[in-house]
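yo, Mediator of RNA polymerase II transcription subunit 24 is done. seq:
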Amino acid sequence: MQAWRERWSDVQWGIQLKRLFSVHSGESCDLAEILLQQTLVGSSPNSLLLSYLKHTVLSQIVPCSSVLNYIAAFDDLSRPYCVLALIHLAEVFGTKLSFSYGPDSSLQVCRSLLGVLHWLLLQLLKCLQTMREERPELIQVMDSASKAATGMLRRPTVTALLQVARADNTEAYREFEQSEVNLRGTLSQLPPGVIPDSTRESISTMLTLAEELPDVQVPLEPVLHAPHLPVCPTLNALVALEAVLNSNSDKISRPLLFLEIFRACFMGLVDSTTSSEELKWATFTFLKMRQIMVKIQQLNPGPDFSSDVEKGIDMLLQYRHLLDQADIKHRWDCLSQFLKECMQFNILTENQMNLLKQKRQIQREQLRPGDLTTSTTSSVGLIARAETTVISILKTLDADHQKNQDPLVGVLSQMLSGRSFEIITSAAASMGELKNFTMKLIRTNEFARVGPADTSKTSQTRAQLFDITFLMLCHIIQLHGMEIVTGHKEASESFIVQWAQRWLPEDGKYRSLDTTAVPQDQSKVDSLLMQFMSGDPRTNVQRWHELCINTPFAVQEVLFAWEHKALAKEKVMAVMDSIKSRMSCLSVVTCVWLCSYMNVVGTDARQKPLAMLEHLTRVKIEQATSTESRSHLMHMVMERIMNDVLPGSHPQRTCAHMYVSTDVLPIVTLHKTLTDAFQRGWLGLSSIHTLEQLLALCGSDWFCEKVVMQMLEWNKAEELSQALSLVLAIFHMDLEHLTHSMLLRLMPRLLLSTVHTHMLTDPRGFTLAKLCVLCITGTQTSKIGQKEPYVRRSRKRSKIDAELEDIDDSDIRPGKVRKLHEPQLTLNLEGFNLDDISAKEDGESSPNFDSKDPMNKALINLFLLMNAIIHDPSLTPRTTFIISFIEEAIKCGAQYARFILQFMPPTMLPQLMKTMPGVFSNAQILQICDLTMLTGRKVAAKAISSNSRFMDKTASV
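structure:
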């Protein structure tokens, strides 16, 4: 009152006020409320006291939020000039005041801004509802209110803080939105001429900005964008991996371009003509590709899907030489066959198919007549007919075979002729019917072993059924892994699956062997041994599965007798001949036991079992035609079983599937393979198999480190982008384990090493960050969106598996450790403190994630390490890598960004903003912080407020 009587200036008022506060520092008073009450005593505001209030807020004596709250509480439109004064204050504080510093909390500012904006909308609504009273001062109120609200909504800091307020108080934000809807409706119903057009336009502009408010998002930008490359390496290589290494999978990466997918298929067709992968590529291209396109159509429905496919194939026609090579090498019109398959699945219309066929026919007319020949033995032609064959076989296997099994034996025997079985299994895999086909074979195998053995024709037929299905199932398991027969209760209880899980080697790893094991019925073993010794193939006392169980015990007796010189070599080889003269399954189980035995004994002790194995596989018994076909499949199965146990120079050891030489170090082979692939821009068949075998040989830790380090040897951004595209696809051979290896082993080593700092310098740094984020997202996608994780089975047991097995499910969460003011540069895989990751407010629950999950553990430790690096006083390439990592995570979208960034300690973002002001935009901050948690809202509000000077300056420019 003294200031008002003596007409103090704003500066004099501020000096006296601070002097008064210094004397009465212990007392508190709501100065904003006192000034506002005195300012708004009459019908018009006291301008001098109003200037005092403005100066008090701008000099940070009074919190801005408290003034805004009192403004929002004023509800007396009968004093329009007081309302105008309050609108002016709200505009000044909301559009010009910096939120970087101040006595009030940033979260309170968010709530106050939402309240005052809601108040402005309510004043506009009340004015519109009372316009019939013809009060001209209300027009001025509406113009000022719409101008103030527009100015606030155009300020990036305000819009970002409103998003925090929205998450903080959903009820208040819902009321704000309802007022916006009411205001829009009232304005639309107002007759023309009631208010000036300029007023109506300014309110409409403000409403448009308010409507766009919830859409404050990070601009969409691909994590991996390489339009400069002639081929999309990631998609091309992923298609190759699906076709060659994962032919039974029902999954494929999301489509980027139809052209790239189609071109990758035809490149694979050309590349595979001289290899054993020819049928895999053919079935993938002509049978599985159409299913993939249907899935794409289901995920992205739209009327333009067929035209998009047509456009992609039309672009493919520009690669005429690629299509010509495919036609010449396969002796078939490959594109026409592909178009036919697309038309049958309604991917293309008949008119579209005919139009594309005509264009391709014009190109084919320029080929030499000799290049236009077609062959009935072409893989494409065989695959085209294989679909109906698979359907017919599935129906045959479903029939009731209790009375007559001869037709079934005939069908199965015919399947073994030539390449028929390989074609059928490849076609079934690409059609998604391989598991169904395998299950029916298991049922047939179980049916064939049920009846007792006798000399009748029925017994002989059952023997053939058991033998053929046993060989078929062994071959399928060898090609597609044990997972093809597991997961079904009926299958897991069957003899063949139990035997395969116990004995059949997988990925070059032999099962454990116990030479002291005792058979369930020694008399049956003795009887079988006598039959082998005498050469009398009687089976009237055995069942077929019991023969398979007891034969290894009999072979063990023969081997031990030979080793102790109780049997001559000639007699031992006669026993091997006796085994071979019977069913093929006995040769297989004998081969498995001998290989497992050789795997656990020393070099000297291997000579005799090796001689038995050589004799078993070398001698060919002349039998009927069906038995010869069965013998061919038997030798294929046995070749895979014994290949890894034979000496490297052994003549029976096949080199057809060995892409990693024993004479060259693995690192040399890997370097040469990757160099060729990086320079070429796509993966050939040889490269795929070489990389797969190196991964299985050396494990995920070694493979991940070497591949990533070679990727980082490039210098130019374009070269790094191409290498990154290929590495991402290569990692899909075993994405989950390779991602764990990168996060748990490689990244801490790079971040802590002073030698490899240059590897984190851009463009290498952000390329590495892209790879990390893409691998994490890919792993998480496979866990969320698929029935089974996208994991290749041929891999070496990693340290991660061992760590998981060592964890007891009864273990409780690690005890809390003492917090330090500064994070330490350490990496503790087990003893991390979850409170370092998510600081809780009172009443908030602990973070909801499994700390024992390998991916969660890896991310927790990586973020703790990065947090320690951020708090280091020096600014290094490690800092820019961390920023790139967070930015790339945000690009993956809200769902995956939230998964990655949930492990980010709450002190990390403020420290980053302090170290490099303005490094993140407001939209990025909103994505980084978890707004569902009070802690996240506080961190976000504070970061946005400290960011206000940079964001507002950018917006004004």
